[in-house]
Amino acid sequence: MASNTPSLSTHRHSTRTRWLVVCVVVVLCSPTFSQSHKDESNDLVEIVKLDSTVRIDVRYASTNNFMKRKMYSQARVFLQRPAAEALMRAHAKIRKAGFGLLLFDGYRPWSVTKKFWDETPPAQRKYVANPKYGSKHNRGCAIDLSLYDLRTGKEVAMQTEYDNFTTKAAADYPGATDAQRRLRWILRDAMESEGFKVNPDEWWHFDYKDWRNYRVLDIPFEQLK
After folding, report:
1. Which segments within 18-93 are labelled E, that is strand?
2. What is the pLDDT of residues 100-118, one digit of tens each?
3. Structural domain includes residue 58
4. pLDDT at 23
5. How confident is the model at residue 41 (pLDDT cuts 50, 70, 90)?
6. Which domain does 191 fall in, by range?
7. Has 202 been annotated as catalytic?
8. Can you tell me the distance from the alpha carbon of 30 to that of 131, in angstroms, rounded to the nearest whole number?
9. 192 in a domain, yes or no?
10. How far apart are the first and last CA of the chain?
11. What does the alpha-carbon distance between residue 71 and residue 67 come to, in Å, rounded to a whole number?
12. Which of 50, 66, 87, 182 lies at a 20 to 30 A Cα distance from 100?
């Protein structure tokens, strides 16, 4: 009489199959990223080299950020070339209104995103990208920015400070003053006309339309020209 009990070899085959399935799922769910500055998906451009009238205030290269410590080794802002060129066109439009762009952050190495996630309490992770998937900043296709007044050279007063993790930072926050709504519209109108989309929860954060074309990168600023 044939036995209905699975053989040892059948059990091993089943276990191996399950293990392979798990491995495939892990790979598919993990971000595809590169640590090489020679990667074909890396065409990062330093913004200030395109237009010196764009100003930068890279908070993560200082202690003036939500982590309260220096996260970047250098105060530099990069974007993938098409996004950078689109940003320059938006900047030209904004200058006609009497303002200039003030940049807080652009490309962010994946390892920094992981530090943000690991060191942020779970209850506060709504505003922090999950490193499991990578972020648009990691792809060089997201920019955090505000405006400065061309006459005075000073940063304008928006509805909140940068990296304000409250509902007041929402892109359509109804409690903003008339002046703040006007500034918000000037920034958003110029950015959206050039292929960027504002983050609903952060008035300062804009994603470039073609971000899906780029891989997650983990290239240190020191390796970028």
Report:
1. 33-34, 44-46, 55-56, 78-80
2. 999 999 999 999 999 999 9
3. yes
4. 41
5. low
6. 8-223
7. yes
8. 9
9. yes
10. 74
11. 8
12. 66
